[in-house]
Write the structure tokens for this entry.
Amino acid sequence: MNDCLFCKIIAGELPAYKVYEDDRTLAFLDIHPVNSGHTLVISKNHSRDMQEASVDDVCAVMATVHHIAPRILAAVGSEGYNLGLNNGRDAGQVVPHLHFHIMPRFAGDGHHLWHGKSIEDKELAVTAEKLRMAIAV
Ligand code: AMP
Ligand code: ZN
């Protein structure tokens, strides 16, 4: 995985503002933060995305999110955060090494959440059945 940006950060071949590290995961500041304290959390094992990652690696990354997020919030004076995953190019993933964004939020910071749309109950029912069948495979 020599040409993976985040693997190079793990290997110390590229600089990063590291804020936490253990034997399985690494957390460092996003260089283009949406707010102060915006932190990326990655597994030290390379995987492109959620599909490629092992459950073990995902759990390790989530344990790190659980451990550091409240501490990051305390440090920057935030009382809430969005946890982001851009999974796949169509979802906006640019760096192909699975990473979660911890994005501290502040009242009135100008960022907006997703906007849901109105939908017929029938369409929800059809979609739910389609998903149940896909998941059961
Ligand atoms: P995405 O793949 O869409 O989740 O976005 C990748 C994120 O990585 C962006 O928010 C970038 O600002 C961030 N990023 C890219 N290169 C670096 C780097 N060398 N160090 C820290 N963050 C980075
Ligand atoms: Zn990588």
